[in-house]
Amino acid sequence: MLLYDSPVSGNCYKVRQLFAHLGIEYERREVSVIDRSGRRELLGALNPALRVPTLVLGDGRSLGESDAIMFYFAEGSPYLPDDRFERAQVLQWLFFEQYSHEPYIAVARFWAIAGISPSDAEGEAKRRGGIAALRAMESHLAGHEFLVGERYTIADIALYAYTHVAPEGGFELEPYPAIRAWLHRVAAQPGHIAITD
Question: 2-74 falls under which CATH superfamily?
Fold first, then answer.
């Protein structure tokens, strides 16, 4: 398998994290998240969105979108519950991550990494959205060890990816003790790797 990957992308990190837990071997091809030139030639036949991560399976089929890749490989593993309702809850948190969390926290971090200076209004909009996402997580995690079913799942992998580096985008985690405790529990999971691995 070949993973088109960026070492700074939290979305790519999610896939690498699950693969580390599952002991899946794969090749990596680094793709810049800042310089997007050549993306159509590189990924156009594999992923219509031209984004990383993009995974090419051993039989030549390809998958894009980090959460779809994780869902595919988590099937039949401890990282995706068998219970129908809990599976739906995992999807709920994956959708939350992509719709209510990543567009704010990850984008603010990307701006910092890429040296982009947004307007005051754009920066404030990201700040408000990111704080709302963190508050929602804090409220849930105040009464739960993990996001779904009191066990570590791909929902935790998905939200850990950009939450643990949120300070790089200007989001301090000090006001969120339940999130900080959860980050420690996630990092203590067997086979856990750092985003830089």
Answer: Glutaredoxin (3.40.30.10)
